[in-house]
Every structure is written in C-alpha cells, then in structure tokens.
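thought: fold this chain, then report.
action: predict
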Amino acid sequence: MSLRVKSRLREILQPAVIVGALGYFVDIYDLTLFLIVRKPSLAALGFTGPEAIDHGLWLANLQMIGMLVGGIFFGILGDRRGRVSLLFGSIILYSLANILNGFVTELWQYQVLRFVAGFGLAGELGGSITLVSEILSKESRAWGTTVVATVGVSGAVVGGWVAQHLDWRACYFLGGGLGLLLLLLRVSVAESGMFRSLQHHAVPASRGKFFALFTDRARFLKYLRCILIGLPSWFVVGVLVTYSPEFAKQLGIQGEVVAGLAVSTVYLGLTAGDFASGALSQVFRSRKKIVAAFLALTLVAIAAYFLARGASSTAFYAIIFLLGLGIGYWALFVTIAAEQFGTNIRSTVATTVPNFVRGSLVPISAAFAALKTPLGMIPAALVVGLACLAIALWALSGLEETHGKDLDYLEPI
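observation:
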C-alpha cells in the first residue's frame, strides 16, 4: 500500500468518522427495530388483530412526529452549541428511551417513549454528516460520509437478525446499551474547526436560524430541492417494501414473501448502494451525476418489480435488493444538502432535510391509499413512484454541483 493511500486512510478513518458511523448504526438499528418487533411487542401488551395494526400505525407516526420536531431542535442546537453537543444530546436521549422501551407495560408508555426515541434519533445522521464534512478535506469528505452511511445502514440488517434471536424487550435493551457505550467513544471526538471559527466571528443570532430558510425565495427553493431529492427512497421503503407481501400476491409470486425479510433485504441493498454512490462520486468527481444515475437505476428496479409476474420469491427478493441498491444515494443526498449552505446554518439543514424526507412518507402513503381504490394497487403504486422520481430529478437539476466545494463560509441571513 502506497504512502499516499495510507495517508488518505488515516485522514478518513479518524474518530469523528468511526464514531459517527457507529452512532448512525445504532440510529438505524432502532429506527427499523420497532417495525420488526411491532407485532410481538403489542401482543405482549394485550393487542392483536386489527387493534394491533391501528396502534402500530399510531406508534410509527408518533416516532415520525418526534423525528420531525427533533430534527429542527437538534439542527439548531448543532449550529448554536456545536456539532459534538448535538451528537451527545441525541445519543443520550434515544439510548435512554430505548432502554425504557424494554420496560413498558402500558400502551401510553410505549407511545411516549416512541416519540422521545424519534426525537433523539433525529439528530444522529445530520450531525454526523455535518461534522465529517467539515473536518475532512474537500478531496476526502465524500469518503468519510460514505463510511458513516455504509456502516450505519447495516444496522437495519443487524436489527432484523437480533430480533430473530432475542425477545423484543432484550432488543431494545441492546440498542440502548450500545448507544450509551458510544458516549465513551464520543469523548475522543473533537469539535469542527469551522464551527470553532464560527463561534469567534459570527453573531450568535445568525447561527441556526431555521426560519431564515423560508424568508428568501432562492434559499427556500434550494432547501426544498434538497428535500425532494430523497422522495424515491421512502416510496420504495414505505410502499414497495412495506407492502411487498400484498404486491407479491397481486403479481402471482411463487412462494411466500415476508415483510421482515424484505426490509432486511432492501437495507442490505442500501448498504451496498451507499458505499457505491459515495465511491463513484469521488471517482467521477460529481455528486449530481451519480445521484442521477442511481435514480435511473431505481426506475429500472421499479420496472423489474412490477414485471416480475409469476417469478419465484427468490427472484422477487433479488429485485428488492436492487431497489435498495438504487436508493442507496441516501448519504450522498444528505452530503449534497450540507454542502449547499454556509457553516452558520449547515447543521440545521443537514439535520432537518433527512427527517423531512422521512416525514414525506405520510403524503406518499396518503397518495397511494387515495389512488388504490379507483386505479388498483399496482397502477396506484406506479403513478406515485413515477411522480416521486420525476420530482426528484427536477429537484436535482436545479442544485449546484458541490464536489470539491470549499465549505468554510457563512450564509448571508
């Protein structure tokens, strides 16, 4: 291995990147864990059948609401108090909420703790991407965010495996315990030099101004485009994968398709896609071209999904893996968002953007549900999916290319 390669690896694999990757791993583990243990956990509380479905949907919505609110709170915290403070607060909150989830005996306790867990989870990805983007050189930062995303997304695969071998309460204890262990590692993480410089040169009132994103038309449109790029990701996960057993029956798939295995499979594809998209953006020195290529791959995978009539369940799972690969530009799109804005509002943007994209599942699901009755399940999914892809491509086309961009500047707000 050449000295140049060793030097680049030492720069990339520093504490902020490693701890950020592990933090996002725990984040994704918890985010998908509830989807996996929803049924047994509600059964333990005395809810089965349609009642369990209704309570499960409300618990998932409470977690999502928590993430939306938490994204704003932690984003502002990161710009006003520092990226490391954001990460400490985020991991403490969702780790304790996870541990307490393992002790619930009443539905209202579960509801409160899923909201708190979602609130805490909201800060992890955006905080890590912001910190890594600011401490690494412009030549290496996409490699750093790629490591964070690739290790992090694999938390969903591990969560699925753990849930097959441990009681649901033990799964929550494990996630919370891993989070608290990360606090020890976070002591070694230094604050971003750009943020330290910001503290000395920027007026405190100009940092983390969330509503400033809406007061200037050009700034708002740029922020909106950053969010809209991610729509296809949650269409795939929230519609095609979540309802994969129902779609499999409609398509006449030979063999059983299980939602839990479909979730693990799509996240396995996401893990590979996140690594590939980050690496390719470095090789081709472009963020936009690679995201466009992955959106095209997602279109091909969606087409394969609905053309798989009569296929085996194994082939169907392979297509779900391909879907995950196609939407594996997740970390790259958050990196693009972080690179679009100045240091004084970067954390706010990078932390709120992925959480608003997660929240987009609500209108996406509503549109699918509204079209399903008049059009049918498959045509409704095709209409919504193509609309998400078209909107994402429009959003991407209007953003500047940020590969190699100098991030040490202030947003004029």
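thought: worth noting. The CA atoms of residues 163 and 329 lie 27 Å apart.
final: tokens above.
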